[in-house]
Specification:
Elements lengths: L9 E6 L3 H6 L7 E5 L9 H14 L6 E5 L8 H10 L4 E4 L5 H11 L4 E5 L2 H5 L1 H5 L4 E6 L1 H8 L11 H14 L2 E4 L8 H14 L3 E4 L5 H8 L3 H19 L5 E3 L2 E3 L1 H22 L1
Helix pairs in contact: 9-10, 11-12
The structure holds ligand LIB3CWND and magnesium ion.
Family: Belongs to the HpcH/HpaI aldolase family.
EC number: 3.1.2.-
Enzyme class: hydrolase
Amino acid sequence: MDPRQRPYRSVLYIPGSRDRALDKARTLPVDAIIFDLEDAVAADEKANARETLKAALAEGGYGERVKIVRINGLDTEWGRADAEAVREMNADAVLLPKVGSAADVDALAAITGDMPIWAMMETPQGMLNAAGIAAHPLMAGFVMGTNDLAKDLQTRFRPDRLPLMTSLGLCLLAAKAEGLIIVDGVYNAFKDEDGLAAECEQGRDMGFDGKTLIHPAQVNITNAAFAPSDAEIDLARRQIAAFEETEAQGQGVAVVDGKIVENLHVVTAREILAKAEVILALQAG
Ligand SMILES: CC(C)(COP(=O)(O)OP(=O)(O)OC[C@H]1O[C@@H](n2cnc3c(N)ncnc32)[C@H](O)[C@@H]1OP(=O)(O)O)[C@@H](O)C(=O)NCCC(=O)NCCSC(=O)C[C@H](O)C(=O)O
Ligand SMILES: [Mg+2]
């Protein structure tokens, strides 16, 4: 599948040390998995987690799900060994936490070679250097680390996420300018379905490709929020049809539901239909 066409609606973190969760993920309808060696793994479990994860990935069974391994930072005692191990794992990409600048990405690439790299965007320095990080030739995607960000910015939690808006916006601009995938941060209250749905809706409106998750109970809500809705698909079809008809008459602007439709709207409409088709194909297995 063309990597740009692939959906990233739901991106589930799995602690690399948890056998049951590693197994369960093989059956969950997620688009991508972040196999975590960093924050979800206790310090005295780090070395075991690396081996457990290596074995799980070698065993396989994750199907079409994108497999991303989050290593510990290269400034920690585990980072270098993680990065060397990832090279040998059956993974699609490596995720570097707390990226501050493009130089951090260079340091990882010196170990992992040409493996695609994703960046955790979760520090004030990372926000200020987002454009340079996004432009790195091996950079494939951004993951918002809203917990670390809130910690460093000393913000309070608000349902409208106003204190994080500048950071989210900077990362979205940088990612979109370079054509990267960008997924939103986690929603910590994993039993609060309404809160999750509202945050998904906000992230989708802002232009995120999907959201990172911490628990299987969050998957269906997120998949639904980041997939084109039936109403969006219907509108896209009508916009394309109306525009083609208008074009055939030598005009450049159609009107659908009282709103103008120009060539640029048709581009979006086609993207919506293409995304819906890819999701259907994935669901069909
Ligand atoms: C939050 C949890 C600790 C809850 O775990 P648990 O009490 O086991 O939940 P349940 O009993 O409800 O689990 C039901 C079954 O689901 C499986 N499970 C649970 N979580 C996952 C998962 N993430 N992936 C796959 N499967 C999962 C359980 O094994 C049960 O299965 P079974 O027994 O077969 O029925 C736990 O959910 C958890 O550890 N979640 C991940 C936490 C995590 O990864 N944190 C780090 C990432 S978030 C982060 O770092 C953000 C970022 O850096 C930032 O700064 O913001
Ligand atoms: Mg973090």
